Amino acid sequence: MNFDLSILKRAERTALQLRALAERAGYRKYHMGRFEEYGLYQDNRSFLTSEQVLTFTDLDGRLLALKPDVTLSIAKNVQPAPGQCEKYYYNEKVYRPSRESHTFVEIDQMGLECMGTFTQEDVRDQLLLALDALALCGTEFRLELSHMGFLTGLLDALGVQERLRPALLEQIRRKSAHGLRQESAKIGLTDADDLCALLELSGPVEETLTRAGALVKNEQMAQALSELAGLCRQLPREGEEVTVDLSLAGDMEYYNGLVFQGYLSGLAAPVLKGGRYDLLARKFNPGISAVGFALYLNELDRLETAAADDQENTILNVALPKGRLGDKVYNLLAQVGYGCEENYNDTRKLVVENKKAGIRYFLVKPSDVAIYVEHGAADVGIVGKDILTESNPDVYELLDTGLGKCRMCVAGRNDFEDDPGRALRVATKFVNIAKDYYARQGRDIDIIKLNGSIELAPLLGLSDVIVDIVETGTTLKENDLKVLTEFLPISARFIANKASYTFKKQALTTLLEKLQEVIG
Fold this sequence. Notes:
By secondary structure, the chain is α+β, with helices and mostly antiparallel strands. 36% of the residues lie in helices and 27% in strands.
């Protein structure tokens, strides 16, 4: 009897077909319990997407957790014999916190893991299966490749100590050249040009690998590039399905070689992630190697609505903040050919476009710009560094425009004197920024969340100090307040959705370059 796969949902169909491919490739099904001892996740916190884990106490007193990850459990439990390679596939549910819903969500994951002693051919086969998994999803896709050895080799060549690398790594993941230069200056690295050059090493395989060759400074970087080039030569590359992005990086404590991620047209975030994680596997079984990937099945059902919404994939969608900043950026872009026929300032429409120029503008609240970009409703946007720091969206921060400059400050009454014997009462709408600032000071605080008229709080005795944006300081002076500390320079940043950067890179880069020209 023939089974009609078309009656299944896309995620169900993809999982069934990928299972068949995995079994033909020699992978065996791995099934695990729903719970795992919490100590496993506590000891490997940095490997997880979040340190928040659902825990409970078992009847025998053990502290257990609902699985936030499958790879850790497989790495712990699979013990390949010397010289042997174990191959498993899984289809499991994991539980992770959602920033949007502020609760835990259930995520369907299907993954393939190869552990033990294996060859480059086994790694190539993993990549081929990753390509097959993306192709089974039934829409345009990209598979981006990188190699951790290239990045770690560069940091070694620059003499960056291991304890200082995470801050640089965070800016590399954001593709933030200005952030890289700031962090480099903090650690005494006077020349950040090579690190910034790394951010530009993305695009078609041969072209990108050729440009990367000019940056090689030691044997580790050369070997990483050679390994990546060898793998790419063995992959089918129709059109632009396989690309290289050497700023793609995993956690240095666990990943040591190839890393990769896959995007589907119409989805805002990677739907597939994987790589070599020998360092993690060797924490449980010294001497072995490991490579694998996971496909996030939940995301596939979103393709049905995304396909209907994304009829004009050639248009670049720009989220602009309502107000003076948005007006200024629009006028600058209009000077270089990105204006609209409708009068931007007169219309009451929230969406204006110029199809000939391939541009569409969304006018949104400044605090919502990053949300629209992160979720793919907009491809790019202009947003203040204050909002980016407060909400920490998963976007690329491509340019500091230098517009809208101000600073984040601690302010208080003119007669304010700190009393270290009690918790400091802090009024602010930037809760996360305030918490982080005072945590670094080692100061105990009570946060009072306000949404406006922050300056009133110390005047009425609601708080001791405020954490807020200061531009000229006039409002503070007129209310007998003063700046106590300045700790975060703020300006407008040009941000991009990660999937849009992959699928619309040429249009996005052209717009960014023209904006840089008129900003000066």
